[in-house]
Amino acid sequence: MKKWIAVLIGLLVVGSATALLMSNRRKQEAQLELTRRPLATTVAVARVQQRTFAEPVEFIGKTEAWREVQMTATTQGVIHDLYVRLNGLVRPHQPIARVDAELTEISLRAAEAALRKAQTDLIRYETLYRENNVPAADLENARLQGKNAESQVLTLKKQLRDAVVKAPIGGTVTEKNVEPGMFISPGTPLMTITDVSAVKLVVAVPEAELTQFWPGRRVPVRFEAYPGQSFTGTVHQIRLKGGEVGRFPVEIRVTNEAKRHPLRVGMTAHVTLTAAQPTTALTIPRTALITQQAQPAVYLFRNGRVAHRPVETERNAGEYVLVRGGLQPGDSVVVSGTGELRNGQLVQVAPEAFRQSAVRRNKTVTQ
């Protein structure tokens, strides 16, 4: 009896050991199977949403001279004196040149003598006409001679005044076409005077944004030549005639006061204002955009896998990108961990705390 009990106990021990070995083997096989499976990459995702932006709008333009006069001669003669130099400053009505007027002075003296004679003749003919000693035609001819002589004197006096050329405006001589000793005649280009006390910035503004500009409004201006420096301009006028694309030139006056940062004609400047009409558009975080390829794309997250999806974008708006096509509201896009992803890859979504920190880290890198 004892022998059978011992045999039974032995069988039980052997069976238990066998069962334990089989269980351990199944566990090892299961673990081996897990190691053979591809590991899911951890990513952070965000939803595609409609957002409304009252974002800044930038207008770019070029500077022009506030006032500029191209002077031409109104008399003829040889330039005797020239009182200005290129890039020199002039005041309004300042003499800038003198034309040799010796012949004009001689002609003026002769014309004044002829005028005195014509006036004397007119008095004599008027007396003779009252006495009926000359016909009316002779009196009218004497009057005509007097008027012609007077006109000749006035013309020569003007030529004498024009012999001293004066600046019509104050400014800088930006072009000089004559030198002492040159002969000039009416219409000969003399010089160009540019008023640089201020510059005229002309920006093209879409008609939808014209309500933001009115004469007298002060606007911030930034010049590419002086990064980090801010200027203030005043809207001067909005031109009535717009361009073919519905943009209207707006003139902005910027005072040229800073000696360390002089404003010149032809500079590029930017005017930044808040948009008149808020923009509502489909958006994704900037960190979701894959820009290494020719066309922008994102990784769309759906059912535990990612799909490569090309998208059409408009522009950046802060930390977001405006999307024109390729996505729908509510879609989920990968915003972190896109570097090693491939189309159709298995992924797992990071917990919220990890996802937020990952997005912040990725945003820091992209910025």
Explain briefly what this protein structure is.
With 367 residues, the chain is an alpha+beta fold. The chain has helices spanning 2-36, 102-130, 136-162, 352-366, and strands at 41-47, 49-53, 56-72, 77-82, 89-90, 95-99, 164-166, 171-176, 183-184, 189-206, 218-223, 231-238, 247-255, 268-274, 279-285, 297-302, 305-310, 312-317, 320-325, 332-336, 347-349.
Report on the architecture of this protein.
Helix 2 (102-130) packs antiparallel against helix 3. The longest helix has 35 residues, at 2-36. The two termini are 87 Å apart. A hairpin with a 2-residue loop joins strand 16 and strand 17 (305-310). This protein is an alpha+beta fold and 367 residues long. Among the domains are: 41-53 and 279-366, conserved putative lor/sdh protein from methanococcus maripaludis s2 fold; 58-65 and 195-274, Elongation Factor Tu (Ef-tu), domain 3 (Beta Barrel); 101-162, Helix Hairpins, CATH 1.10.287.470. Mean pLDDT is 83; it is low at 353-367. A six-stranded antiparallel barrel has the order 3-10-13-12-11-14. Strands 17-16-20-1-21 form a five-stranded mixed sheet, covered by helices on one side. Strands 2-15-19-18 form a four-stranded antiparallel sheet, with no helix packed on it. It is built from four helices and 21 strands.
